[in-house]
Amino acid sequence: MLSLLKKTGYTLYRIWFYILVTLPIALFFPFLLLSTLSERTYPQFFWLARNLWAAPILYGMGCFPRIIREQKMVRGKSYMLVANHTSMLDIMLMLRTSKNPFVFVGKKELVKIPIFGFFYKRVCIMVDREDSRSRTGVYMRAQRRLGQGLSICIFPEGGVPEEHVLLDEFKDGAFKMTIAHGIPVVPITFYDNKKRFSFTFFSGGPGRTRVRVHTFFKTDQLKEEDKSILREQVRNVILQELKADMGHKEPEKTP
Predict the structure, then answer these.
(1) Global pTM?
(2) For a FRET experiment, which of 25, 106, 172, 220 has its CA 20 to 30 Å from that of 182?
């Protein structure tokens, strides 16, 4: 009986998530659509997505963000945002973490998600990881976006790893791109999203969703051959933070 009640609760929790994902899009569809008609209005779309979509989902799920910043982003400056990837909540939490407008680079398969996929293909940089021409096109589109003063966000694991994996190996793309454009890398650790809403159906629940924005890595003096070193340095920052948290280390509060 208890097992049945728990499974029912998990199922309702999942259904509620998809309602929260869909409802703001339906309510604000005309405004969202208008803000995607031109790349010049992307900052307006980002504001809508951050405040009228991501925030209601997180708070509606009872997943209250707590963001600790070791360094703050400068308004109007471009960055490369990288974080560990464990949950669908990562998208919403990343939107709440950065006030600077950024564009996601993500896999094209997400276009298939009803309603969400409609806007995803209009505002994100999609990549087919099996197609070398697609990967080349990403750099060109990212360059245009950076030229518009936007930032780029990539989950460098290249997908969501199996749940027993603490942090998968990082791909080169984000680090090759950031060196090519000389923009800082912003490592970000998501501690709790796997516990709050993992890809295991009968799991999850409300609670804090902690984030740490680590000290940035400068790249303006680096060359392309340095990308592997940079990749491992950034990965190690996030990995060590996740390992420390497994020992129930609580991140200190920002002054």
Answers:
(1) 0.91
(2) 106
* Beta-carbon-side half-sphere exposure of residue 184 (alpha carbons within 13 Å): 15
pLDDT score of 118? 81
Contact (CB, 8 A) for 57 and 21 = yes
Instruction: Report pLDDT digits (tens) over 148-163.
Output: 999 999 999 988 898 8
DSSP, residue by residue, the chain: -HHHHHHHHHHHHHHHHHHHHHHHHHHTHHHHHHTTSSGGGHHHHHHHIIIIIIHHHHHHTTEEEEEEESSPPPTT---EEEE---STHHHHHHHHH--S-EEEEEEGGGGGSTTHHHHHHHHSEEE-TT-HHHHHHHHHHHHHHHHTT-EEEE-TTSSPPPTT-SSPPPPSHHHHHHHHHTPPEEEEEE-SHHHHS-SSSS----EEEEEEEPPPBP-TT--GGGHHHHHHHHHHHHHHHHHHHHTTPPPPPP-
Region 206-223: mean pLDDT is 97
User: At residue 250, what are phi and psi to the nearest 5 degrees?
Assistant: -95, 125
Angle between helices 173-181 and 227-246 (to 10 degrees): 120
In order of 130, 152, 186, the CA distances from 78 in angstroms are 28, 8, 10
| Maximum CA extent, the chain | 62
Contact 101, 150 (CB under 8 A): yes
Both structure tokens of 185: 């890398």
Reported as a single tens digit per residue, the pLDDT across 156-191 is 998 889 889 999 999 998 999 999 999 999 999 999
